[in-house]
Fold:
Amino acid sequence: MAHINNDQVSGAFWFLIGLTIAIASLGYGLGTLDSPQTGFMPFLAGVAMSFFSFIGFIQATIRQKKGVVWKSILRGFHWEKPLIVLGALFAFIYLLPRLGFLISTVLFLGFLFRVVKPLGWGIVICGSIILALSAYGIFEVWLKAQLPEGPWGF
Structure:
């Protein structure tokens, strides 16, 4: 009995998902290149997804012929950091309306920089502030998006 490998399974799965998206988008109409309709971009995305996953499936089949078989993708996986990031995201969502975008983002990034990928305090503080101010500048100032304001008005 031939064994399958992880990439063959995922290639087949994503090929079918892409094919389903492409077929479903036909119901919305494709239009033309000059005047695309609603289904045009989903159709292209589905075709691209199927195409690239088919290539991945072929490459995986070639590797399978060379002896690469199914391996557990969870073996040796450490859950600590993903769970910490998930907890930090929930804390960020909780703090966002209470402290505002700028302060919540500084705290969130600082936590990630210090705990998930331990960096020195200088980089943590400066990096968090610079990235939060950059995001604030892009979304609030440039794009005029209304970000949550904290008790201090920013």
Q: What stands out?
A: The chain has two domains: 6-65, 80-142. Helices lie at 6-25, 40-65, 80-99, 101-116, 121-142.
